[in-house]
Automatic annotation (TrEMBL):
Domain CENP-V/GFA: 20-127
One Pfam family named in its UniProt record: GFA
Name recorded for this polypeptide: CENP-V/GFA domain-containing protein
Keywords: Metal-binding, Zinc
Gene3D superfamilies in alphabetical order: 2.170.150.70
Species in which this protein is naturally found: Conoideocrella luteorostrata
UniProt-recorded Gene Ontology molecular function terms: carbon-sulfur lyase activity; metal ion binding
Family according to the record: Belongs to the Gfa family.
This protein's record includes keyword Zinc: yes
C-alpha cells in the first residue's frame, strides 16, 4: 500500500448512509455497499483513496473503505477470484470471467476493523 494516511470508513450507524450498486464488467458479480454519499455536494464527501502501489496503479483502483458488514452480496461474491503478492496479508478480488478488479479484502488485519476496500470505479451509483 502507499504511504498515504489510511482513510476512516463511514460510521455504519449514520442515517446519512446510502446504498451503492456495484458490479463487474460482465455482471456475473454484483453487490451493494452502504456508505456515506460519494458526491462532491455532500457535506463531507467520502474519502476515496488513490493508492500508488504497483497493483493498485495497474488495476486503476479508486478505493473506498467499507466494513465487511456494509456489503450486501447480490450475485457471485463467493466466486470472486483472489490474488496475493508481497506480504500476502490481503486478497485482491477480481471476477474470474471478465477480469474486473473489484477490491481488496484485508482479511481482518486492519487496525480500523474488518475492512474491504472497494474499487468505486465499479459503482453504478445509488440504488
Amino acid at each position: 500500500m502507499s504511504n498515504q494516511p489510511f482513510p476512516q470508513p463511514a460510521d455504519p450507524a449514520s442515517s446519512k448512509n446510502v446504498w451503492y450498486s456495484c458490479h463487474c464488467h460482465c455482471g456475473a458479480k454484483a453487490f451493494k455497499i452502504h456508505h456515506e454519499p460519494l458526491v462532491d455536494t455532500a457535506p463531507q464527501p467520502a474519502p476515496v483513496m488513490n493508492c500508488n502501489c504497483s497493483i493498485c496503479e495497474t488495476n486503476g483502483y479508486l478505493l473506498l473503505y467499507v466494513y465487511r458488514t456494509d456489503i450486501e452480496h447480490i450475485r457471485g461474491w463467493d466466486d470472486l477470484k483472489k490474488y496475493q503478492f508481497a506480504s500476502k496479508t490481503r486478497d485482491h478480488l477480481f471476477c474470474g470471467i471478465c477480469g474486473t478488479s473489484v477490491g481488496i479484502d484485508f482479511l481482518g488485519s486492519n487496525r480500523k476493523g474488518d475492512l474491504i476496500a472497494i474499487n468505486v470505479c465499479r459503482s453504478s451509483g445509488e440504488s
